[in-house]
Design a protein that fits this description.
Pathway: Glycan metabolism; bacterial cellulose biosynthesis
Low-confidence stretches: 1-71, 636-655, 657-666
CATH architecture of the largest domain: 2-Layer Sandwich
Family: Belongs to the AcsB/BcsB family.
Subcellular location: Cell inner membrane
Structural class: alpha+beta
Strand order of the largest sheet: 1-20-18-19-17-14-16
Membrane topology: Single-pass membrane protein
Largest sheet: 7 strands, mixed
Shape: flat
Function: Binds the cellulose synthase activator, bis-(3'-5') cyclic diguanylic acid (c-di-GMP).
Number of strands: 42
Number of helices: 12
Length: 787
């Protein structure tokens, strides 16, 4: 995968205190976490338990405390259930040593001072109390032990357990382990009576005290983004009055950078004008002509970046992005987004920043590359490709595909799979099961190594010193099973053979691994897609993200935009960064009156029906128009819907507009619509509009919600309250390129009537040629006879 380039940045830094521990924090913890909420506060239902997570931290906070002084006042207590931590269903602990658990993490600017676990559980009446118990384990250490007396067996129980805060680190794993026995004689280690159930309504309660962090650039992106805090990032951006287009371009680069860091968590950026937030952290953009009120700005000597306290909140920080003019401000933003690791001190001046090489299509760091096969080792950590035990976790490989891959008549995306496993002692039912996004794909039997006088085992040991069996397989992933964000899941299932009474001994020495040199290859698939298709915009930001830096994208704001317009723009840029993993350093921002200058770019148009004149100028091309309380919709006829099967798979989306309908209502509606640019053929327009400013923010909330964004499809999306409707009409332009012969075949496959006519025409032409040829030969014979 493409890496963010290292830039030649020369810095002039002012000295400041440095933290000895919190300088660089390893790879991003990605899955199965949920945001913690204050105790007693109502917790909203999470859309996906693997996307939002608890955040709290101890050792990192302790290190910060050692570097900067005593903890600050303002301790809070947070409670989070196992379900919020990712346990969609209760834990079923089975066997003599069953174990399962959940992860959680702690913010860098907080320290845990107290912890309790409210455990809700049930256990088998067959367990022998003297030999059985349930261990609460935190990061591999036993934090508490729960007895299993006969008197309460088989009933729902609740027990509060105190946990030592010293056991809590920055990233944590809370496990529940059943040590179970049902007899003192020979026992089956997988006997059905060995079970305990841990309810996912069990609650982890933490008392957190804030800790001051230093004003230090080397901590970036802390405290503005903390990878431990896996809830949605909410970060205000502060401007002085109406920011210039260049200032907005710099802000778009910064918001996309934070969006890329936030990743699966999502990120929203509210814009405030001339006002610093009363609490928390914020990013402030400053030039000599644009200085927000209430911010003490140092002397600006060039492109500069600094971290200062929030004057309105002792616990908050401000990230100042500064320049003497807009050009220097953009340089400072680029230095922050592309070279943050090189920054240090309380403030830094960028003396020189060389240009990076232009991006090429489909080279986004988060996307599977289209110019070469991609190794699994580039998509996930090597340690996550290895599992052990008879009941191992899934091996998960996450990947993101370019959304315009054209898989018509192809076998799919080829995967050269290499894996290893501990060979089975005899032939059994052990398999490697392969799923794609929880859909079964195929299974491979795990072979055995038969032992004849030990000779086979000795030969295996010489050839394979680690005792594992390497296997190579080729798999074709059907493209229809693969949304933009997909996950390959590999499950090593080991069959357990019963040997009989007093012979069943569990030797948990089996291992499995997916080789990091396994590859996925999309190089053979062309890029070609029918637009408008708002699904690819909602999931991947396409077509704007075709170039990772958005250098062929222009954002068109009203000539007099408001705070909601700025917030919508910044949040959408964060969404683009989440898709590509690269800052939008090439995006252009323009007013509606200057749109003609951006004719050769794809256009992202933002505004209300009242403030954005382009919605009136392009009304005939748009499937919807919102003016005050009046809404106008384009409708199709019923006959074309019924006959869509004849026109092929896209027929129901290509039907023409038959009539228009206007309705009046006082509700606040927001729409997302896509259509071909009126300024240039083959260029796209995506319009975000509403009949009220607050409706724009409702649309960005939909795009950030993992469940709601699945409803974003077609050429028009309507949002009114909690209802989301998608419509499709006038899908009549294509982006990308096919080989000529492939294009002809595809074009004819969608138009069977045209193919019949072409075959008929070809037949008539061939018949006419044969007729004329035969007539000519007949004339020649007659001439020969007369001669």
């Amino acid at each position: 995968m493409t890496k963010t380039p290292r830039l030649p940045v020369r810095l002039r830094a002012r000295p400041a205190a440095r933290l000895p521990v919190l300088t660089r924090l390893g790879a991003l913890l990605a899955l199965s976490m949920l945001t913690m909420t204050p105790a007693g506060a109502q917790r909203a239902a999470m859309p996906d338990a693997t996307r939002d997570a608890v955040t709290a931290q101890a050792p990192a906070g302790a290190a910060a405390q050692a570097a900067t002084g005593a903890p600050r006042s303002g301790a809070r207590t947070v409670q989070v259930t196992f379900k919020q931590l990712g346990a969609d269903v209760p834990f079923q602990l089975r066997g003599v040593d069953g174990i399962n658990g959940v992860p959680f993490s702690i913010r860098a600017d907080e320290v845990v001072t107290a912890a309790r676990l409210k455990l809700r559980y049930t256990y088998s009446p067959a367990l022998i109390p003297a030999l059985s118990h349930i261990n609460v384990m935190l990061n591999g250490e036993v934090a508490a032990t729960v007895p299993v007396p006969k008197e309460t067996a088989g009933t729902s129980l609740e027990r509060e357990l105190a946990i030592e805060p010293r056991l809590i680190s920055e990233f944590n794993r809370l496990n529940l382990q059943l040590i179970g026995h049902y007899t003192t004689d020979c026992e089956d280690p997988f006997h059905s009576s060995l079970w305990a159930t841990i309810g996912n309504s069990s609650v982890l309660e933490l008392t957190l005290t804030p800790v001051a962090l230093a004003n230090e650039l080397s901590l970036l992106p802390l405290p503005f983004f903390d990878r431990r805090d896996v809830g949605r990032l909410r970060l205000p951006f502060v401007f002085a009055g109406a920011p210039s287009p260049a200032t907005l371009e710099a802000a778009g680069a910064v918001s996309s950078w934070f969006g890329a860091l936030a990743g699966y968590r999502g990120a929203s950026f509210s814009a405030t004008l001339n006002q610093v937030p009363a609490a928390g952290n914020a990013v402030v953009f400053v030039t000599n002509e644009e200085k927000p009120a209430g911010v003490e700005v140092p002397a600006i000597n060039g492109p500069m970046i600094a971290v200062v306290p929030n004057p309105a909140d002792a616990n908050g920080k401000l990230l100042l992005v500064m320049g003497r003019d807009s050009a220097e401000l953009k340089t400072a933003a680029r230095a922050l987004t592309l070279g943050a690791r090189a920054l240090s001190g309380q403030s830094a001046t960028i003396n020189k920043l060389d240009d990076v090489a232009p991006r090429v299509p489909y080279d986004a760091p988060n996307w599977v590359r289209s110019d070469r096969p991609v190794r699994f080792g580039e998509l996930t950590e090597v340690r996550d490709l290895n599992v052990s035990g008879y009941n191992p976790d899934l091996v998960r490989v996450n990947f993101r595909l370019p959304p315009d891959l054209f898989g018509w008549r192809s076998k799919g995306i080829p995967i050269d799979l290499k894996y290893r496993y501990t060979p089975r002692p005899v032939v059994d039912k052990s398999t490697l099961n392969i799923n794609v996004n929880r859909q079964f794909l195929r299974a491979y039997a795990l072979r055995s190594v038969k032992n004849q006088d030990g000779r086979a085992s000795q030969l295996l040991a010489k050839v394979l010193p680690d005792g594992s069996v390497p296997v190579k397989e080729r798999i074709d992933l059907p493209l229809f099973m693969l949304p933009a964000q997909s996950q390959l899941q590999f499950h090593f299932y080991y069959d357990y053979l019963k040997q009989g009474a007093c012979k069943d001994v569990l030797l948990d020495n089996v291992k499995g691994a997916i080789d990091p040199d396994s590859t996925i290859d999309v190089t053979g698939l062309p890029h070609f897609i029918a637009l408008p298709d708002l699904a690819v915009f909602g999931n991947s930001g396409f077509p704007f993200t075709r170039l990772a830096d958005l250098s062929e994208t222009a954002v068109i704001l009203p000539d007099k935009p408001g705070a909601e317009d700025y917030s919508t723009y910044l949040t959408l840029m964060g969404r683009m960064g989440e898709s590509t993993g690269y800052p939008a350093t090439g995006v252009a921002v323009s007013g509606a009156s200057q749109v003609d200058k951006q004719a050769q770019r794809d256009l992202l148009v933002i505004g209300t029906a009242q403030s954005q004149p382009l919605f009136t100028q392009w009304a005939e091309r748009m499937p919807v128009s919102l003016v005050g309380n009046e809404k106008r919709f384009s409708l199709t006829d019923a006959v074309s819907t019924v006959m869509g099967w004849w026109n092929g798979a896209d027929g129901t989306r290509n039907r023409p507009v038959e009539t228009h309908m206007s309705v009046s209502s006082a509700a606040t509606d927001a729409t997302l619509s896509g259509f071909e640019s009126p300024l240039a053929s083959g260029r796209s327009v995506v319009a975000v509009t509403s009949n009220a400013p607050q409706g724009l923010l409702a649309m960005t909330d939909v795009l950030l919600d993992p469940e709601q964004v699945t409803h974003v499809q077609g050429s028009l999306v309507l949002v009114h309250g909690k209802d989301i409707d998608s419509l499709a009409a006038q899908q009549n332009y294509y982006v990308g390129k096919l080989a000529p012969w492939t294009y002809v075949q595809w074009w004819l496959s969608r138009r069977p009537l045209a193919m019949v006519l072409m075959i008929g025409g070809a037949s008539l032409t061939l018949a006419a040629l044969l007729f004329l040829s035969l007539r000519a030969r007949a004339r020649q014979r007659k001439k020969g006879e007369h001669a």
